[in-house]
Amino acid sequence: MRRALTLAVLATCAVLPALAQVADLRSKTEFRVCADPAAVPMSSQDGKGFENRIAQLFAEKLGVPVAYTWFPQGPGFIRKTLRAGLCDVVIGYAQGDEMVQNTNHYYTSAYGIVTRNDSPLASVEALDDPALGGHPIGVVAGTPPASNLARAGLAKNMRGWDLFVDRRVEDPVGDMLAQVKSGELAAAVIWGPLAGPLVKQDPELQFTPLLKESGGPRMFYRITMGVRLGEQEWKRELNSLIRRHQDEIDAILRDAGVPLLDDYGRL
Q1: Interaxial angle between packed helices 246-256 and 192-200, expressed in degrees from 0 to 180 and rounded to the nearest 10
Q2: What is the pTM of this model?
Q3: Across-strand partners of 206?
Q4: Neighbours of 261 (CB within 10 A)
């Protein structure tokens, strides 16, 4: 019993310095952001993405400059940026992922269906709508709507794009939107923060949030900021910034064209 207690104390003592070192990684002189250099319209190396604008807002409130670590958002992104101590925050991260510690969510959005305005599918609001049958539909493989399309018996209609790509050389969302516009695809099902701002710029296309799904994976998700595990003080500071500047964040998102929902997935 005594030996077990001793080992437990030693283990605790070994962990505490490690946690202290993690807390010390956060820069006090820069707002260090981990970001994809080509995840348009969310983040881009030219600083025009809406996540870039939110990063700039937070840096101004903290009184420090923004500094980026650029890395394609796919396998290894968190390990080679945030966990490596090269940066301190990921501006957009889905709530619940165990790779990071999530702040409070600062917006909720949804997947939706993109069609031409003049398409016979323009009134479709759910993936089990019989009107979708027989039409080619673009979707990113491995995303929740791909499961719902298959569940609706539309697997043979799906035209898939890879989930993890280097967006500096591939553009799945741009490709899908171009094919919807040309008629090669009848529709595409895309994450709202990616599709919404791009559709806003094209009067021939429309985006309809998928809020009426009857089953399968949910289509709406809360988005947080991601920080390193154990950095409680930093998370609390970001939570305070989110709370105090939510109206300014919302204004950035709305101006960009991001479809915003309430916490329960309602417009």
Answers
A1: 60
A2: 0.89
A3: 115
A4: 19
Q: Give the number of other Cβ atoms within 10 Å of residue 81's Cβ.
A: 23
Q: What is the pLDDT of residue 24?
A: 65
The beta-strand segments (E) located in the chain are 31-35, 38-39, 43-44, 66-70, 89-94, 101-102, 107-116, 137-140, 158-161, 187-191, 205-209, 220-227
Residues 6+ apart with CB under 8 A from 75: 164
What mean pLDDT is predicted for residues 135-140? 98
Q: Which domains does the chain have, with CATH numbers?
A: 27-107+220-256 (3.40.190.10), 108-209 (3.40.190.10)
Please tell me what DSSP assigns to residue 261: B
Letter for the amino acid at 188? A
Give tens-digit pLDDT for 57-80: 999 999 999 999 999 998 899 999
Q: How high is the pLDDT of residue 137?
A: 98
Terminal Cα-to-Cα distance of the chain (whole angstroms): 58
